[in-house]
Amino acid sequence: MTTWTSDELHRIGTADELEMAPLRRDGTLRGPVPIWVVRDGDDLYVRSYRGTDGAWWRTARQSHAGHIRSGGVERDVTFTEVTDEETNDRIDAAYRTKYGRYGGAYVNPMVASRSTTLRLEPR
């Protein structure tokens, strides 16, 4: 399994946004959409602001593959669904800490959509 380098973790983890382009069924990438990304230890996570209605999330969940760009890093990735409550609690806290300056109107939906948590794994 490929892992993130320390530099990649730092650059992506401190970037405000990540451009997400999930792989469609036909093998092409969806157009990239900007989303928030958080780091927990040596892992990177994303969630859908629109919950399970998010088009990018539905595509990512179906294909489990895509391409990301953030902080000057571009990588093909695998998406792994996260259902562990303890991990999701840490991701909730990471969203509140990193993006709290934007207020509850933006952060609360991210915390509420924990069922859409995906771990990004480099390929």
From TrEMBL:
A Pfam family that this protein carries is: DUF2255
Q: What is this protein called?
A: DUF2255 family protein
Q: Which organism is it from?
A: Streptomyces capoamus
